[in-house]
Amino acid sequence: MNNKNLFGLIIAVVGTFLIIAALVDVMRRYTQPPPLDQNRIQERKRYLTEIQAANADALNNYAWLDQAKGVVRLPITNAMELTIREYRDAAAARSNLAARADKVFAPPPPAPKAPEKPNPFE
Fold first, then answer.
1. Are the C-beta atoms of 69 and 104 separated by less than 8 Å?
2. CA–CA distance, 73 with 59 (Å, rounded to integer)
3. Residue 61 DSSP one-character state
């Protein structure tokens, strides 16, 4: 390689790196969220409180998840006690769990098919 080709190659590599660096800088500025002001801080705290309350409710209270299928949400302490009690006989507990999972995750029945109309162009 002569010096002219080597110099051109170096310029091309440096130029490529500069272009990539400029694109990274532009994308960082473009995607950076706005700074948090006091209103946004209060809003985030309120959302966090709501999420924590919903999670505490889900962990500590009974609720129907799917009443048609008979699926109930239990408080976490009751669920742990029930699991310990059921798994004293591990084989029966596994078969019971498999039967309940099949019931909960059963596919919905197929939709009724409409009668096909003959194509008028056939």
1. yes
2. 9
3. S
